[in-house]
Amino acid sequence: MTATRRIGRDGPQVSAIGLGCMGMSFAYGQRDDEGSAATLRRALDLGVTHFDTADMYGFGHNEELIGRVIGDRRDEYVLATKFANRGEVDAQGDVLRRWVDSSAGWARQALEDSLRRLRTDHIDLYYMHRRSPDVPIEETVGALADFVKQGKVRWTGLSEVSPATLRAAHAVHPITAVQMEYSLFTRFVEDEMLATCRELGVGLVAYSPVGRGWLTGKITSPADLADDDFRRTVPRFAEENFAHNTALVDEVRKVADEVGATPAQAALAWLLSRGDDVLPIPGTKRVAYLEENMAAADLHLSDAQLRRLTDAIPPGAVAGERYAPSGMSTVNQ
Question: How far apart are CA 256 and CA 171, in angstroms?
Answer without folding.
Answer: 42
